[in-house]
Structures are given as C-alpha cells and as structure tokens.
Amino acid sequence: MAWLTRALLLGLSAQLAIAKASNEDAPQPDPVPNAKDGKNLVYEQIDKSQVVYTSNTTSPDPNSIPPTSGWWASNICAQKTYCIYTNLGLGNGRGIVLLTKHADFQKIARLDQHLEKAEDRIEAATTRTTTPEGAETAGKEDRQIPKQEAEEKPFSESYILSKGHGLIATISLRRGKPLMSAAPVLLVHEDFFADIWRKSERNKFLEKAVSFLPPATREAFDRQRTTLLSSNGTKERTIEQILLAPPPHYINYPSMFLFTHSCRPNIAFHIDGNLALRTTVARKVAPGEELTIAYIDPLLPRKERQEWVGRFRPCPSPSSPESSSPYCPCPACTGHTSSKLHGHPHPSSPTDELSKSDVRLFELNRIRSQLRNHDSPPVPPETIEYFLKLHLEEGLESKMAEAYELAAINYNYLGQEDDKKAKKYAELAVQAARIEHGRDANEVVAMRILAGDVRGHWSWEYKLRFRGKKVRGG
Hints:
Keywords: Signal. It is a single chain. A hairpin with a 5-residue loop joins β15 and β16 (about 275-280). The chain has helices at about 1-5, 90-95, 100-110, 110-115, 190-195, 200-210, 215-220, 240-245, 300-310, 330-335, 350-370, 380-395, 400-415, 420-435, 440-450, 460-474, and strands at about 70-80, 80-85, 95-100, 120, 125-130, 150, 155-160, 165-170, 180, 185-190, 225-230, 235, 250, 260, 265-270, 275-280, 290-295. It is of the alpha+beta class. The chain has 2 domains: about 1-125 and about 150-330, SET domain (Beta-clip-like); about 355-474, no CATH class.
C-alpha cells in the first residue's frame, strides 16, 4: 500500500498518483487472477485494435455491459491509454469506477480486499432502545416481545445560509470523536486531465464512466453537481469541476459532500490505508452548530482563500447577492465573530476582527518558517508559546498536529530545562496527529519516539551543539 498512500493529497477527496515508473506505455500484460484471496478478477481483455477513442466518431459496443460482481475492463478508452474499469459488486453493491491506465488498474484491482473494507458509516451514531408499537398494551403473554434498536445520528441535514444544504450537530461532540467514514466511488488518473486536452472529450469520458455506477451510487454522486450561486439561483457543475477544485482530488466520496467549507473548520479528515475518508471532530461542537471542513489550506492568506471559494464553491454575498466578486461566508472571512467563535469571544467589529485575523495569520506563518528552519538561530520559548496561542486564537484546532510537533522539536533544540516542554508537546502532537492524519500516520510514530526518549532524540540540543561548533570553528 505504500506506493499508493504516499501519493494521497489532503482534500475533500484525494489525488491518486501512480508512480511514474509504472506508467510507461509498455505492451499490456495478460490479466492475472487474484488467487490469494480466492477472488478471481473478472476481466474483458483489451484488444488495442478495438480501443474506442473519445475523440472519434466510433461508439462503444452497446452490448458491452459490466458484470454485477468482480473487476471488468471495458473497451472504452482514450488515446489507447485511459480506460474505464468497474467493480459494481464492491461494498455490497456500492460499486466503484476507475479511469486509469491498464498497469495501474491491475495494481488497484489487487487491492480489492482493502477497498472492500472502506464503507460509508456514521461512527459517532448512538443506539437507542425503543419499545415496539403496541407492546405497552400487550397482555402478560406478550411481555417477552424483544425491544427494538434505533440508530440516532449526531447530526441532521439542514439548509445553511449562503451555502446551501449542510450538516448541523444535534448533540455535543468532543474533540477527537470519530464522526464519519466514506468509501470512494470514482478514481481518475492524475494525468488524464493533461493528456486529454479537449475539455468536451474529457467531460464525455467522465460522464460515461459515472454512468456505470449502480443507480443508488449514481444518485448520491449526482447530488454534488448543484452549487449555490445566489440566494435564488443554482448551477449544475460538471464532473470535472467536482474533481478539479483545488487541491487536486481525483478520488470522489459522494457521502461527504454535505460538509460545508470553513477556513476555520471544526472537523478534520484524512485518508486511511483502505482509501476510506475519515472525519474526526477537531474541537468541541455544540448542538445546533454547523459541521465544517476546510476545502483549502486554512493557513493561506484570506484573499487567496476567498478567491478559491469564489471560483470553485461560489456563494452569494448577503450585501450583494448578484455580485460575482469572490466571497467566502465563513466567519474567518466575514469577521462576524462578535458572539462567540471557537470558544473565544471577539467583541470587536467585523472590520477590526478581519484586520486582527490577518495580522495573526501573518505572524503565525512568519514564526512557522523560523520553527521549520533547522539552520535558523534557536527560537526562544516565549515565541514558541505565542505561535501556539495564535493557532487557538485563529480557530485552527484542525491544524494543531504540525504546530505541536514544531513546538516539541524546537523545545528539544534548546535542551536542558526545556525537556519537559518537549515531552509535553510531543504527546499533544501525537493526539492531534491521530485526529488529523490517522492513528497509524508517520507523524504519530515520529512524535511517539520523541516523547518516549526526549534526550536520546536527534533533536536534543541540536541547535546549541550546531551553533557551538560554528562559533568554535570561526
């Protein structure tokens, strides 16, 4: 799985980038059944002489219908390279469609046991026991009727002003609480959009791929097509627009589309080894609060974040609904934080709060650059603490893993009296990394090593020793 997981980029979905060495257009090998797990892959061998181009007038064979189980290779291809592959039985009929090269298809197909483990599931749901209808009035002979169990979701679907449909918490959610997991239904090779240069052909090919999805999955996928453009208008997005909204994410998870965007989200997410997208509560959420994720890097300047939202997730401005200027309705971009946001009261006006936010973010990124530079002078403890404070004041609880890691490392650079602080922040980094990257992430392992042996770690007094040698050498 290493070749696959290393290529995943964060985003509502993730980009699948197969190693370049595996993508050379060599002659296609014969398919090999997956004998180890007893699941023989169902293939229709591709004859290059029968390849269908999306750029010519030839139509696919109308009788070419994928089977309801097992992997199937179609003869619907572009430039003899990118073809449609399906496994409609995956996930109890949820299904998945690939748009990729033959060599990469063979690799992914052999991961079907992992893909099978990915599922759409509400992990924070609670079970409520109910009495069957009529049981209370039943006679003594009926009192042994088993009670029914009903699943209660921790959120409900609701209309969010200036955003459209979204999710609202119905119960209190603590930081670190697993919320939902989602399975992928569409994987598109990263080079497809560059190599197929005609947009109309790309759209035709993508539409054909999605058309193979099982009806229920296709219906869920199509819900993503609508975007809110104004208070009284919507527009349908193409599949390419759904996939290419940066950061590039070429794996699609329809069950996650109701999470609305915020530059200061309360939900973090990551992709696990089964290609399941998992969401976790990043800070305490109260009943009635909107559940949000960041579709773009929250550490970018406000202007860049607004331009991204205006281009890929357009929202109407309350003051000018018909305006086409970039607008992001989240509190970090509007400054409407006068009540209480992120657990921190901001009594200043929206304009003042935006100015303060811009300054905080500028300072945060400035100090971050110093902390990440191993060759810079030692950063004093007060600056490290200020760096962490800026994260919390900005509502960046979903980005604390790196912050705590940098704090731990830089305290360890100082050594001696600061080893307790290094251990403290390494342990906090482990907790945050589990939320943001998953319990088996490299960030978790690295910080556990530091927390377990602070003085034996490579970073112990690193900058003091390094600078001392330089001084003596000079």
